[in-house]
Structure formats: C-alpha cells, structure tokens
Amino acid sequence: MSRQLQRLLPAAARRRSAVAWRLSSSTATTERDDAAKPRSFASRLKDVGVGFAANASRSKEEKQVNLAKGITGGLPDFVEEWTPDLFRKVGKGLGVAAVASWPLAFHHDISLLVPLLASGATVGYWKIGLDDLKQTSSALPKNFPVLIHLRYILESIRPEIQQYFIEADESQGQVPFTRAMRSTIYQRAKGAQDTRALGTRRNVYGEGFEWANHSMFPVSHADVEDRVTIGGSRCAQPYSASLLNISAMSFGALSANAIEALNRGAARGGFYHNTGEGGISRFHLSGGDVVWNVGTGYFGCGKTIDAEGTRAFCPDQFKENATKEQVKMIEIKLSQGAKPAHGGILPAAKITSLIAEARGLGDGPWLTDCASPPRHSAFGSPAELIQFVQQLRELSGGKPIGFKLCVGQPHEFAALCHAMLDANVAPDFVTVDGTEGGTGAAPPEFQDSIGMPLAEGLRIVDGFLTGAGLRDEVKVIAAGKIYNGFSLVRTLALGADATNCARGMMFALGCIQALKCNTNKCPTGIATQDASLSSSLHVPTKEVRVANFHRATVHAAREIIGAVGVKRGRDVSQDHIFKRRDGVQVRSLSEVHTNYFAKLKAGQLLTEEGLAETSPIMRRWWRDGYDAHTASQDRAMAA
Q1: What's the start-to-end Cα distance of the chain, in Å?
Q2: C-alpha of 613 from chain center
Q3: pTM of this structure
Q4: Greatest CA span in the chain, whole angstroms?
C-alpha cells in the first residue's frame, strides 16, 4: 500500500464515523466542526481518490446498500463545486502560468511552442467563459462557465458512442435498424460472405420470436417464381414486377448521385424504382424502370394557382410525363407510413434549378414555397378517387394505376371498396405503407404514434379486397422495414404480392444510420443536397451494390418460399409463419387478432350468409364504409 493511500485511509475512516454519528444522533464535536467547514474544490477532488480506495475495501453488501440509498447519480461533486468565481480564479492561474512560461522559453529551458499553446488556451478559456456569463438563453453556462461545454461535447457524440461502443447486435427499439440488420445488408451489397457459424444468436424462446415452418418436401428455389404481373382487366400495359423493389424516395430528400445510383442499380437487377412525390428528375431516367409517385403537390403534373403556392392537377403535363417509356406504373400517394395525413413544405430558398426541373415549377426565380398539403385537391371522396384512377389510366395509355396509403380508419378503406364495386372500376395495385416506414424528416408524434403498422394494415387491405371479390384485379404491394429474405416472405404471408424497400437500399448505398437525414449533413452523401458531401458517392460502385443487395435478398426469399413447399409468394400463408407469445405459447399469424384481422374468403362480404360468418368488427367496418360512401355520394349530388 502506498504512503499516500495510507494517509488517505484514516481520513476515509473519519468520514464514515461522521456518517454513523448522524445516523445515531450521537455527538462528536470534532466531526461536527469538520463537517461545518466550507470545503475547497481541491478537497473535493481529493475525495474522489479517497472514495475509490474506500469503495474497494467495502463488501458487496455495503456497495448494494449505498446504491439503494441513491448515493450515485446527478453531477459529480467536483462539477457542483465549479462556480463563476472559481472560473475566474482558474483563469487567473492559467494567465500567470502562460506569462511565466515566456521567459523560460526565451532562455531555452522549454520549447517556444509551450507558451504559445498556453497563451492560446488561456485566451480561449477566457473568451468561452465570459461569453457563457454574458448569455441569457440558458442557466447552465452561467452557473458552470467553460466546464459545461464538456457536457455539450459528450451529448453531441452520444449517438456515435451508442452506435460504435454500446449498441448490441439485436438492440431492437434503440435504433431504426439494428447492427445485425445493417450487417446483413452491407455484406450482401458488397458481395461478401453473409453466412454465420455456430447457430442463431436470437433467443428462440423469447416473446415475439418468429419462424417459418418448412416442408418435408421443399421446392427448389430455381422453380420459385420471382416476378408478379401488375395490371387488371382494364390495364392495357401490364408490368412484370420483382418481389423486391425500391420504395418511394424523392430527389431533394436524396442527392442526385444517390438517385442515379439507385436507378442504375434497378436497371442492373431488373426491378423498379419509385420516384417519391418529388417528381421525375433527370437522375431517375438513368435506365431503370420507374414508378411515378403522384403526391398532393402534383409535381411534374400540376401548376401553381395562387400566391400561397397552392398546386392543382394538370392533365396535359401528366400525360407528357406518364407516357415516357421508362415510366411503367403510376402511384397516387394518399399517405405514407412515417407521417400519415401530414404534409410538407420545401421553402422557396431551398429550391434549386434541378429540383424545379423535376417538380415542374418552371424557370426561376421561385418566390413561393413548394407545398405538399395533407390531402389531394383533385378528389375528395372514395368515388372521386376511383374516377381519378380511371382518368390517369386513360391519360397514361393504359399503364397500371394504383395508390399508396398507410391504413388509418378501416371503414374508410371499406368505403373505397364500395366505390370500386359501384363504379366497376378498380386500381391495378394498392401499396400499403406501415407506420414503421422511414422518412427524411417528420414530427416525432407522427413517426411514433400515428398510423397502423404494416402487419395490421396489410391484413385489412387484403381482407377487404378479398371479401369484396376484388383481389384478383388488384395487386397489393407492401413497404415497411423489409431488409432480408424472411422479412420479405413474412410480408407476402400477410397478404402482399410484392414489396418495396427504402432504407435497406440506402444501406446498400453506404448509409451508416447517422440519423442526420433532416440536417442536410448526411456524412455519406446520400440524404443531402450539399455537393461537397454528395460528390463523394461514387455512382458506378454504388449501383453494383444496390443490385447485389437486391439479388441476394430475393434469392434468400425464394429459398424460404421453396423451403415452405410452394412455388409462388402468394401461396405462402399466415399458417406458415408462427410467433411466440411467451416462453411457452405460440400461435400462427392467422390466429393473431382474428376478430380484427381475419382472413376472409373471396366474395364473403357480398352476401348476407358471408357477412354472418364475418367477425362483428369487420362486419361493422364494412357497413360503416358503405354508409360513408353513400353519404359522400349524396353530398356530391346535392352540390
């Protein structure tokens, strides 16, 4: 034991005696006087060393008692002792040290660099501290000048510390995509080995664990279909889509290089690229198939009609873009999972010539903000939406027309089905976006608490379309955290024909989940318009990685579909996927929430006998949908 520690231990013993005196209400004059003395900052620092020594000698039980008493937590003692007066004293000490170092440097006792650094540190110390004392926006800098910036620095790098040093491989809930998820995507995008040794790392007996039941007589993955034909009986130009495609991401949200790499990757892999609601940019036309997303701002198919930037649909402009060879399908965006029923505004100051070109805003200057309101102006009821679908089908020359939504109130989708039946017109596809979907920027309340997750929304859409006898006409596409073969197959089992993927494709481009999409400071050059950052994204390299990720993921999905014993994704049912409720009980997905999300038979909702077999809640939604549809029709006739 060192001499210093031997001197410190008696002091620690005296402090423990003082604690005992306070607990027993005994009198000890010496200890009471010591406790009443003001303690210096240096003495509190000394206590840190004493505390470590004393703690090392305590038993495990004593340490647990101290923790139970709440001794830990809050600011360290030496930080609480820091005051503006102490800041000035330390500053004066630094000044004296800096001045004293100059003669030593001139006499060559120390390097000239030492007084330069000391003087610079002193000036910086005083500048930061005095600014902290003058500011009025926060109490912390006033109370703890200079020192409080250590907290700000640690707070600013907390996400990186969490991601690189603390985050576990399967840390669900801490970040949108776990390290294990990202690693799978990175490996497949780079064409690296993606197999693992020694078995699963997941707790197969933990609540929420899911698996697919395989067949004793599997089908070869080479015999499993990986294309889906989209286009109903009224469609003149049906499209053969891949099981996995690029979900909606606009130019503006993503950089030009990112959009071009995605589109060229789609061309390599034979899958489509959804434009997002920001219009068709020149970078979307790099060889890959395009699904044009028509949002509430009607970018590329509308015009500004007032000083507030309000946009209205323009049939002529729509026809010009919709008939382009590369545009294979058109998707009307009703809502998206990350911010359903929430619009957005691109400030006029952020509109560039390339963004204006993609959105059809004309030549500058652009004096009004570019608005995407929460709802469409071209239609206002289920019946009008179906009429709009037919209008776009005719203007596009018979290309597949559909719409995208995050399911909210189920009876409203039932009303859409009633409108389809009444008009004898149906969309060619419906894209269901789950609330777990991603976005560049959205209010946290909308990201966390608005809209229906994909599993439930998909069941409702598939259920109502099937029950209304429309399922053969309408294909269902799903988007929401699809990143590997199993997540894709699970989505098919819930009712999808094909899937879209956004963030997985971003990871293939090199996204590191820095969570800076809304700051224009994406370090990988993907979600930014800063040319100094986006120019580092090498398009020829990244397009290969996008194609690699797609190919490997679809291959894994085909292997799982074959392992289940079927040849088509649509033949994978909810009975094939099981989920553990707790350590003992398990259920197939078809048995989960059967009252709300029952699998209906074809045409079951069209007869009284079928309605009698339908669960009460589904039957109520169906009837409420009929009432909503007829009420909107009555209002339209009255107007």
Answers
A1: 94
A2: 39
A3: 0.78
A4: 105
